[in-house]
Amino acid sequence: MSCGSRTRWRGTRLPWVLAVCAALVLAGCTGPSAQQPVDDAGAAADSDAPLRVAVISHSTPGDAFWDVVKAGAEAAGEELGVGVEYSQNPDPAGQARLIGNAVAQGATGLVVSMANPDALRDAIANARKAGIPVVTINSGAEESKEFGAIGHVGQDERIAGEATGERLADGNRRNVLCVIHEAGNVGLNDRCGGARDGFGGNNFRNLQVDINNPADVEARITGSLQTDQNIDTVLTLNPQIAANAVNAVRSTGTDAKVATFDVNPDVLSAIKAGDVLFAVDQQQYQQGYLPIVMLKLYRDNGNTLGGGEQVLTGPGFVDSSNVDEVNKYASRGTR
Asked: How many folded domains does the chain comprise?
């Protein structure tokens, strides 16, 4: 989405009967007497204005994980009669510009992932000053409330990391290499930090790589496995890096196993083949879907969810015991 462009909002032609039924079922409201939400500046939101939500993520185009988030947001928009426009930029400054564009183009709701919260602080503050309610997703949960968001939807990365570390320890894994693929991403640091705590052993170290250089990623994981042959587990934080790790394990001929965060069809195939022990599933479809519901309930009925705490979508775990079931949903783009 760019300044001056004509924005096309999805999901605005839903039959009114379905929209009303969905609002009643989800909100449990009794009619139009529900209290209107009030923004930080004291201006009541106009419940008669079209709800047009800009969803702005820190991802790159074609990222399979974020394609599922987008699908969730657009599905909710179609079902609830909410206009949804999805845009993305992995650069924090670029993401902040997208937020500014959405405000200028008349968005009446905002959904933002915050991998680098400080870079988005001013842009989100400007949205709030304009009376636009904000829901944060995926990352930046610690800053969400401080920034004035009405809620956060995602996986607590520290909790997910701890559960992962405990699972590795319970599986008799003894020496873990945790691969961080994006410098400065607070969520990734929390994943490895939580996993270290949950693992509870000293034989746990991080490896910093750059996801934009796959050949170097594989080479650096290979080098680590060759240098320290005691490593029996490579924990990755992204499906693409998981594939690099599987290749590195094969090339070195070690007995090391790979576990990863996040699910896509390739990871599910690798689990079925025995190349990946398990994947941590944060059910990202919900990270797209639920914020649209939250913004509609807030606009129509003054509702908030979470009681000031984040709404958790994970962690869940996918392994050989449930991979076939999850694969059915992944094949249709919802897991």
From this structure: 2
Q: Would you list the DSSP string of 40-59?
A: TTSPBP-TTS--EEEEEES-
Amino acid at 214: P
Count CA atoms closer than 13 A to 65's CA, side-chain side: 22
pLDDT of residue 184: 83
* CA-CA-CA-CA torsion sign (117, 120, 122, 125): negative
- Same domain flag for 112 and 74: yes
- pTM (predicted TM-score): 0.78
206-251 tens-digit pLDDT: 999 999 999 999 999 999 999 999 999 999 999 999 999 999 999 9
Tokens of 280: 């941590």
Q: Give the chain's radius of gyration (CA, Å).
A: 21
Give the CATH number, domain containing residue 268. Answer: 3.40.50.2300
The whole-angstrom separation of Cα 227 and Cα 215 is 18
Same domain, 177 and 73: no
User: What residue has token string 């609830």?
Assistant: 80
Domain check: are 114 and 87 in the same one? Answer: yes
Of residues 56, 128, 63, the one with CA closest to residue 96: 56
Residues 190, 326: one domain? yes
In the chain, what is the greatest distance between 2 CA atoms, to the nearest angstrom? 68
Distance in angstroms (rounded) separating the CA atoms of residues 67 and 74: 11
Domain extent, residue 130, equals 16-155+284-304
Q: Which of 312, 309, 276, 335 is nearest to 64 (CA)?
A: 335
Which residues lie across from 202 on neighbouring strands?
Answer: none
Residue 251 and residue 227 share a domain = yes
In sequence order, the β-bridge partners of residue 233 are: 176, 257
